[in-house]
Amino acid sequence: MKKNLLIFLWALAPVALLAYHYGPGQTGLAREEAKASIQAALEFEKKEQWQQAIDAYNEALAALPEEETAKRMQLQLDRANARIYVGELPEAMFAMEHMLDEAAKGDDKKLENKVRASLASAQYYTGWLMRLELAEKEEWMEPIEKARQNFRLLAEQSAKTDAKASEEHQKNLEAVVRLARMDLSELQALPLPKKCQGCKNVCSKCRGQKKSNKPKQGKKKEDARGASVGQRPDGTGS
């Protein structure tokens, strides 16, 4: 009886190992793989090898389980910040806007504030570069105004809990206001921020992003004659 029990237990061992490998074991392996990719990304960032860092963040996101929502968003934020250094400021900014919408739905206020702070910075730099590209005031004021609102909110929210952070946000808020009021000749005389030196055609990219994000309009209803309502049918009228 004892011998049969030992044989039974021995026979179960491989099954248990397989269950671990295809269950919790797989999740553990995925986390380890993601951890290695994150470490690689951080090393690439230290060397200012930004495209390699982005690739490493992509690998980490591909490996990290979907249920790790907070970690995934942090990685997405790190990737977005790295994208600015390779000239993808507008793309990074719009990605951060989407992240902020998602973060606001959760209860991780610290992560939400990190996303908001990064987004505000991206909006600030976008407004800066749009001014240098001689965009219309209405156009470059949009990201600057959004940056102002975000930094103001961050400063107000952290005033009672983190005086140092609140002070930093207040300084950033003041920088945004100065940017909006600064004469173009003064702005042109300033050195371009290092992280933005590879950013080109910001205006056209922003327009393209806004156009692609715009909800598509449905087809207009047609009247009995087959012409769209509100449009003059071909071949009729003066």
Features:
238 residues, mainly alpha, 74% helix, disordered C terminus
What would a concise description of this structure say?
The protein is mostly helical and 238 residues long.
What this model shows, in words?
The chain is mostly helical and 238 residues long. It has a domain at 88-182. The protein is globular and about 55 Å long. It contains ten helices and no strands. Mean pLDDT is 83; it is low at 5-10, 16-22 and 219-238.
Span between termini: 103 Å
Would you identify the regions where 5 or more consecutive residues have pLDDT less than 50?
5-10, 16-22, 219-238
- Please, what is the average pLDDT? 83
Main beta sheet = none
**Strands, count:** 0
Which of globular, elongated, flat, extended, rod-shaped describes the shape?
globular
Helical stretch count?
10
Beta-strand percent range: under 5%
What Rg do the Cα atoms give? 26 Å
